[in-house]
Amino acid sequence: MLDFEYARHRMVEAHIARRGVHDRRVLNAVRRVAREQFVDEGLEEFAYEDSPLPIGSGQTISQPFIVAKMAEIAEIEATDRVLEIGTGSGYAAAVLAELAEHVFTIERHRSLAQQAERRLNATGYRNIEVRVGDGTKGWQEKAPFDAIVVAAAGTSIPLGLQEQLEIGGRLIIPVGEDLYSQRLVRVTRIAANKFEEEDLGGVMFVPLIGEHGGHDENASVREARAPPLPRQIARAAEDLPQIDDPAFGAMFDRFGSRRVVLLGEASHGTSEFYRARAAVTRRLLQRHGFTIVAVEADWPDAAQINRYVRGGERRSDAQPLFQRFPTWMWRNAEVSEFIGWLHEYNRDVPGHARKAGFYGLDLYNMSGSIATVLAYLDKVDPEAAAVARERYGCLMPWQNEPSTYGRAALRPGYRTCEEAVVRQCMDLFERSMMEGDGDLLDAKQSARLVASAERYYRVMYYGGAETWNLRDRHMFETLDQLLEAHGPKSKAVVWAHNSHIGDARHTDMGTVRDELNIGQLCRERFGAQAALIGFGTDTGTVACASDWDREMEVKDLNPSLPGSFERLCHESGKPSFLLDFERHGELGADLAAPRPERYIGVIYRPETERLSHYMDSSVSRQFDAFVWFDRTSAVTPLSKPTDSIGKVPDTFPFGI
């Protein structure tokens, strides 16, 4: 059962206080309100995510941060009388009631008002009055108010609300005719006929419907059908040829001079994303001197592919490729076709050093990496192999359940396991200074992977940002090692999910959860020599699972959510295009405001999509360019590999 009290306190610290709400009274008020009691049945597990939730009648319960922020800037005192416009679920009214002496709240949807009143009564609030009506008119009979908080965006500031303010009273309201570009305004009544306005920054709210200063419903529908941003996107979009047309890859020549080109995907199961990345990569290899293809895959499995594409022989102890869940992510026809092309391409490349390689960046498959280290040492130094076996032996009792190792590693005695695997890694790095063996890079990287995975097992016990950050740092450091090993003029193409290759500093990952990723680290390391290119879609099918370690399914994608970046792209009316934010600075500026962006990993749950698959992102800052396919299809999986026996399981329990 979920610990709601713990989740509530964690939400306040991680999503509200850390993002800039500092008033202790406000923070304590949010801590006291049980948000799970104000959401619809079945959504309780998402109550303490910092996101809006559906509540019926096309409305949402506001995200906790914006509720707290508006309460803070309203400067509510314990003796204040507060008017709220837009009751919704009643959650914000409850927070305001923790701060003020009395709260009056207006909701235009009768069903929502009645439901909110029942919830507020059930949770013991006796200082809140609920009314059904036009919020733009205010509540004259109860005026004046010390503060008025409006939870919907008006096209202008209703004069009637300003006149219902007490002298010194504050009105907090989002204002803007464009649904995608609103400003949060604070109006303070200085005197009977004098008001002071402050612009507090960009926001995005549902429209304020009403007689005075609000949208009429028909106008809101018309605006939603033809907002300006899709027209801007359509003008800036560069139409893409068919993926199989050589002209498709040529569209990306503009990135050919970069050191690193990172190609994303909005899901791990979409054919067009894989095929498009393959087409771009072929062009970069053939025309622009790239020799490294680094992918979000297990190092040991990718190392076998690397041997094949570079003309090497298969190792006698090699295991079937990509046996762990999700097998379809790399065992699919789209990847197989690219690997076949890469093998043929390398046949005509003179000199082993100039051949293109295929490398895995991830820290999964610990057992495969241990086997690689031992096989290398068995060949070059049997005594060192014996030492390595002793060092790695401490990991084996926990090979079937990583979290068990995480708990065990809390005890001081298990510090020696960490020291052993790090020592083994250092020994191979020291060996690399003295030897030039062609297999040494593989062994050295495998030792790094074991050391990283050991630490991963430990931090998994705690969860949180450190787990994600360790993984992405490992992937970035692997990429950096590959570039260093291939020389100062080496260039790499990276295939990974949008959540890894888009700069995390411009998403909720960085602003709320303190997570970083490969894209951020590449920008910090390579600056303008890194190109971050995201991918997205609206509808179609996707290969996925409903839960971790379940069978693959092909599911229909829900159409993108209104207000999301994907919906803007869909409303441009174009089937596929490239958006180059560096060439269209004005559009980039207009798309800089955070808005929902869809992220699907190997798990896809359409029934909870807004909560489980969308995250607020500033797309034009997150990426340098974006590739759009309006309708997409699922990847074609290859035959299922044989089950793995006695192998260390996957160290990352999530879908991306």
UniProtKB/TrEMBL annotation:
Subcellular location: Cytoplasm
Top-level taxon of the source organism: Bacteria
Primary location group: cytoplasm
Active site: S62
GO (cellular component) term, any one: cytoplasm
Entry's Gene Ontology molecular function annotations: protein-L-isoaspartate (D-aspartate) O-methyltransferase activity
EC number in record: 2.1.1.77
Xref: InterPro entries: Emycin_Estase (IPR007815), Hydrolase/PRTase-associated (IPR052036), PCMT (IPR000682), SAM-dependent_MTases_sf (IPR029063)
Pfam family, any one: PCMT
Transmembrane segments: none
GO biological process terms on file: methylation; protein repair; response to antibiotic
Catalytic reaction annotation: [protein]-L-isoaspartate + S-adenosyl-L-methionine = [protein]-L-isoaspartate alpha-methyl ester + S-adenosyl-L-homocysteine
This protein's UniProt keywords: Cytoplasm, Methyltransferase, S-adenosyl-L-methionine, Transferase
Enzyme class: transferase
Function: Catalyzes the methyl esterification of L-isoaspartyl residues in peptides and proteins that result from spontaneous decomposition of normal L-aspartyl and L-asparaginyl residues. It plays a role in the repair and/or degradation of damaged proteins.
Protein family membership: Belongs to the methyltransferase superfamily. L-isoaspartyl/D-aspartyl protein methyltransferase family.
HAMAP family, A to Z: PIMT (MF_00090)
Name of the protein in its database record: Protein-L-isoaspartate O-methyltransferase
Natural source organism: Mesorhizobium australicum (strain HAMBI 3006 / LMG 24608 / WSM2073)
Lineage: Bacteria, Pseudomonadati, Pseudomonadota, Alphaproteobacteria, Hyphomicrobiales
Gene name linked to the record: pcm
